[in-house]
Amino acid sequence: MTRIPTLRQLTRDILSCLPVLLGFLTIHSALAAAYIVPSASMEPTLRIGDQIGVIVPSYGLSTANLPFGDALKPSSETNSRLFGHLPHRGDVVVFRAPANLHQTWIKRVIGLPGDTVALVHGRVILNGTVLPWKDMGPTREESRKNVWRAAERYEETLPGNIHHDILKMSQDGELDNIAPFTVPASHLFVMGDNRDNSADSRVSVADGGVGLLPVWNLQGQARAVLWSWRDIGRTALVL
């Protein structure tokens, strides 16, 4: 005859498995995570609804990686990461948004600490050199779900021969001209690949943008599109 476990036995069995489950979840969240892209700010690289895989310890770990990290931001950005190191220019990173630490955003690293950055007519000038562009032809931008606008696609090249595509809809938008400045220590200059539709380092935190991103906010490096419901051909796309 089959023995039916009592409520006490079930509770005991569940509690005995809990440490193993919590340990698995901790290891998983410390190594990798998945995020859904909510906006058009990284088009054409990432599209609305893409599920992306993120390698969490790519830049070391900080309290920003913890579930309640928004309440644990250090008073100083210096030495705020365990085993920390800086991203490379061109890395696509996820981070706690400085304007709202409860939110995770994604942008591309353009400038590192000590770099001089400026923008003229939409062209990035990094350490006195204009980043090369190659016109890839007309395309469309999905500004929000199922709403499309005409755009031009360019291939931009960062130092180290790092190539990535960007979108432009205007050559003289409100974010296309910025006077030269130097990225301070423990901060990054990040941009969306959709240059006319991204509240990135060109937009201050007070205005809802990223501003100069503290390295503490980093949560990991986006490495691949795990799944795309709207374009299955993008699945397993390496970033």
Automatic annotation (TrEMBL):
<keyword id="KW-0378">Hydrolase</keyword>
<dbReference type="InterPro" id="IPR019756">
    <property type="entry name" value="Pept_S26A_signal_pept_1_Ser-AS"/>
</dbReference>
<dbReference type="Pfam" id="PF10502">
    <property type="entry name" value="Peptidase_S26"/>
</dbReference>
<protein>
    <recommendedName>
        <fullName>Signal peptidase I</fullName>
        <ecNumber>3.4.21.89</ecNumber>
    </recommendedName>
</protein>
<dbReference type="InterPro" id="IPR019758">
    <property type="entry name" value="Pept_S26A_signal_pept_1_CS"/>
</dbReference>
<feature type="domain" description="Peptidase S26">
    <location>
        <begin position="14"/>
        <end position="227"/>
    </location>
</feature>
<dbReference type="InterPro" id="IPR019757">
    <property type="entry name" value="Pept_S26A_signal_pept_1_Lys-AS"/>
</dbReference>
<dbReference type="InterPro" id="IPR000223">
    <property type="entry name" value="Pept_S26A_signal_pept_1"/>
</dbReference>
<dbReference type="InterPro" id="IPR036286">
    <property type="entry name" value="LexA/Signal_pep-like_sf"/>
</dbReference>
<comment type="similarity">
    <text>Belongs to the peptidase S26 family.</text>
</comment>
<keyword id="KW-0645">Protease</keyword>
<dbReference type="InterPro" id="IPR019533">
    <property type="entry name" value="Peptidase_S26"/>
</dbReference>
